[in-house]
C-alpha cells in the first residue's frame, strides 16, 4: 500500500501515555482498529510524524502498535495534537525488500580501559525496493511516479499473508522501466526510509 494523497484531517487527541505501546486519548474518535495513523504535535519525538497500525480502538482511545514512548523526557503537548489517517491505495508488486543497514558504532574507550568500549549510534538510513510490472492505468504506480518527481515523503504499508506487516515513511527516488523481446514491461520502484519501521502482528480472530 502507498499513500494516495494528502492525509485526512487529523482528529484531536488530548493525552498520550509514556508506555510500550503508547495509548492516545481523544473525544469521539472515529479511528478503527487496523487503521494506519500518524500522530502530529504531541511533543513526543518517538511517535510524531511516524505511521503506526492501530491495534485497539474505542471512541475515546487508540493504541499505537509497536510504539514506545517510555523514554520520552518531555510532557505531552496537548494543544493542537492530532491523529491523521493517510489515504492508501494498493500497490501490487512481484517483489518487495526493506533494508535496515547496520547503525553507527561509537568508540568510547579511554586509556583506563583494558579493552574497547562502544555505544550504539543512530540506526543507518534504511532503503526499500519494490519490483513489478508496468500498467499505465495503475493509480498506485502513478502516485509513486508523482512522488519520484516531487520528492515527497509519504506512508507505505506492507501486509503479508498471515496479516502481519510493517508500515513506514519513505520517499521514492527510483522509478525504472525495462522492456525487451518476449518480455513484460517491468517497473522498479525504490527509495529511502524516513525514520524507523513500525511492525504489526496479525489481527485477532473474531
Low-pLDDT sequence parts:
none
Number of domains as seen in the coordinates:
2
The CATH class label of the largest domain is Mainly Beta
CATH architecture of the largest domain: Beta Barrel
- Give the SSE string: EEEEEEEEEEEEHEEEE
What's the end-to-end separation, in Å? 24 Å
Alpha-beta classification:
mainly beta
Q: Outline the biggest β-sheet.
A: 6 strands, antiparallel, barrel
Helix content: under 10%
Describe the structure in brief.
This protein has 206 residues and is mostly beta strands. It has one helix and 16 strands.
What can you see in these coordinates?
There is one protein chain. With 206 residues, the protein is mostly beta strands. It has two domains: 2-88, Ubiquitin-activating enzyme E1, FCCH domain (Elongation Factor Tu (Ef-tu), domain 3, Beta Barrel); 89-200, Elongation Factor Tu (Ef-tu), domain 3 (Beta Barrel). It is 6% helix and 40% strand. The protein contains one helix and 16 strands. It has one helix spanning 139-150, and strands spanning 2-3, 11-16, 22-26, 36-40, 52-57, 61-64, 82-84, 88-89, 95-99, 105-107, 118-120, 127-133, 154-159, 165-170, 174-178, 186-200. It has a six-stranded antiparallel beta barrel. Strands 9, 12, 13, 14, 15 and 16 form a six-stranded antiparallel β-sheet that branches. A hairpin with a 3-residue loop joins strand 5 and strand 6 (61-64). The longest helix has 12 residues, at 139-150. The protein is globular, with a radius of gyration of 20 Å.
Amino acid at each position: 500500500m502507498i499513500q494516495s494523497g494528502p492525509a485526512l484531517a487529523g482528529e484531536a487527541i488530548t493525552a498520550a501515555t509514556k508506555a510500550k505501546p503508547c495509548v492516545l486519548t481523544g473525544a469521539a474518535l472515529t479511528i478503527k482498529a487496523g487503521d494506519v495513523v500518524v500522530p502530529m504535535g504531541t511533543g513526543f519525538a518517538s511517535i510524531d510524524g511516524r505511521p503506526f497500525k492501530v491495534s485497539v480502538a474505542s471512541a475515546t482511545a487508540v493504541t499505537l502498535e509497536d510504539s514506545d514512548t517510555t523514554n520520552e523526557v518531555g510532557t505531552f503537548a496537548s494543544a493542537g495534537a492530532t491523529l491523521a489517517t493517510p489515504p492508501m491505495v494498493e500497490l501490487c508488486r512481484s517483489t518487495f525488500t526493506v533494508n535496515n543497514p547496520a547503525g553507527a558504532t561509537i568508540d568510547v574507550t579511554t586509556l583506563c580501559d583494558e579493552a574497547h568500549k562502544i555505544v550504539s549510534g543512530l540506526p543507518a538510513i534504511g532503503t526499500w525496493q519494490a519490483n513489478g510490472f508496468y500498467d499505465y492505468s495503475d493509480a498506485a504506480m502513478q502516485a509513486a511516479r508523482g512522488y519520484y518527481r516531487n520528492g515527497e515523503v509519504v506512508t507505505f504499508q506492507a501486509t503479508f499473508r498471515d496479516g502481519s506487516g510493517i508500515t513506514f515513511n519513505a520517499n521514492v527516488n527510483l522509478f525504472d522501466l525495462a522492456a525487451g523481446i518476449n518480455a513484460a514491461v517491468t517497473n522498479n520502484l525504490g527509495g529511502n526510509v524516513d525514520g524507523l519501521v513500525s511492525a504489526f502482528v496479525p489481527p485477532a480472530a473474531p
